[in-house]
């Protein structure tokens, strides 16, 4: 639980904060932008990479028989036929007949009434609900919609040198298929036994209607996928295990767990045994951060059917042959960034009646772990540069010598830098520095030759 302060309750406020401080910019901004595309700035790129590393540590490095993969964005088109994406990856959409705005039906209903639970409705039930409840268009407030139409979400492109010799290929709408089609390769080259897991961080693309909640749902996004391959009958135990591992990940990176909840799926796809999301309470409402699913043997069975390659696993002890079940747990990277920013941003009242803007995030995630601040530019810059050179070999380090020390502290607070190291006369005379803590504003005197160890213990994940 964060200390008392004014938390983020307005997404427009967050958008302005992110742009002002270099976390996230509007995509193609100088051309007027492209709807639902965003670019990560200098601080946003660092935060994003730190979250990737935290995920790798939590899901890959600390689990036995877990391996990372980096599969291609472009795959053989038959992959998407096998997965069902070519014929079945569609959104139910309606258009407002008055203003021509287009909406995904379940989002339209849930925005109209958050308690409606559109996820559990069939398309017929959703259309009936819209008519009976007189659901209104969020843009023009009319209640006059077209019938539901299906809209394929995959981006299609062409592969070939000349126009008459091309094939249709797709930008991947998810990362998981890259792990499934490499199941045999990873099994062979790692000499693993079941259960084992394949994880991957990578971009995916979906040509979908988005509600405009900043980076929560975009047409280009990154997923941190984790697929467990296991013996049938052990899958539900793994499912429960990775529900908790996913929850523990968000707690570990410092998210306020009082704003998290599990949401079990009431309506399962035909091949799934169980499915659950972890949701966070954003300013716009509850939103999914993670999905954990028991997918049974569906995926490997389909790829065996379409590729002609056997996906059978032979148990080295019993010689039993079977197609493994898959339990996946996927973390949305862009949503993890958004959640971290929303959860950490605070305007904190001070004793003198003023306030300070602060990003209270886990030190490991902070774009800059430490800032080096010469107290007086004229007298302390040379030694400060030496300290910067020392620290930058170990940590992402900022250097700021502009303005008075109080303003520099505030600038670092606003971007989440957990520690500020001030170089002053004591550093020259006694070889000590002042280390200020972002959250408590407490200052410690630390010997220069002990500074790296001091910071390392404070920052570790």
| Low-pLDDT ranges | none
Work out the number of β strands: 24
Number of domains as seen in the coordinates:
3
CATH-derived architecture of the largest domain: 2-Layer Sandwich
Please report the number of helical segments. Answer: 15
Please describe what this structure looks like.
By secondary structure, the protein is of the alpha+beta class. It folds into three domains: 6-75 and 174-343, 2-Layer Sandwich (BirA Bifunctional Protein, domain 2); 91-150; 368-459, Rossmann fold (3-Layer(aba) Sandwich), CATH 3.40.50.800. The protein is built from 15 helices and 24 strands. It has helices at residues 11-21, 42-61, 77-83, 85-88, 105-112, 123-133, 176-181, 183-190, 235-252, 298-307, 333-344, 377-392, 405-414, 425-430, 451-459; strands at residues 6-7, 24-26, 38-40, 66-69, 90-95, 102-104, 149-152, 155-159, 167-171, 196-205, 220-230, 260-264, 274-282, 285-294, 313-314, 321-322, 325-332, 345-349, 355-359, 370-374, 397-399, 419-423, 432-437, 443-447. The strands form seven sheets. It has a seven-stranded mixed β-sheet with strand order 4-10-11-17-14-13-12, sandwiched between helices. Helix 2 packs across helix 11 (333-344) and helix 3 (77-83) packs across helix 10. The relative contact order is 0.12.
Briefly summarize what is shown:
With 461 residues, the protein is α+β, with helices and mostly antiparallel strands. Helix content is 34%, strand content 27%.
